[in-house]
Design brief:
By secondary structure, this protein is of the alpha+beta class. The chain has two domains: 1-38; 41-78, no CATH class. The protein has one helix and three strands. The protein has one helix at residues 2-35, and strands spanning 44-49, 57-59, 74-79. Strands 2-1-3 form a three-stranded antiparallel beta sheet, with no helix packed on it. Residues 50-72 are annotated as: Disordered.
Amino acid sequence: MKSNIVLKILALVIALFSVTLLAYTIAEEHRTDELNTVLDPLTFTGTWQASDGAAPQPLTADTKIDSDQNPSVILTGHFSQNI
């Protein structure tokens, strides 16, 4: 008799857990669908300089800044869209 009640409670717990997991999975699927939007690439247009006294240099897609020689840089310009 006691084991029969324990089995019923265990079956109820498993069923509730399964329903909760299913609801979470469905809700998560809908949430990720909202995130799958077209993203525009973000670019920065402007100049960079190694320090306040250094001459500004154009910042292009081909610019390579050596972080060993320039651990911090000053960027002047704007992003291609609001962030």
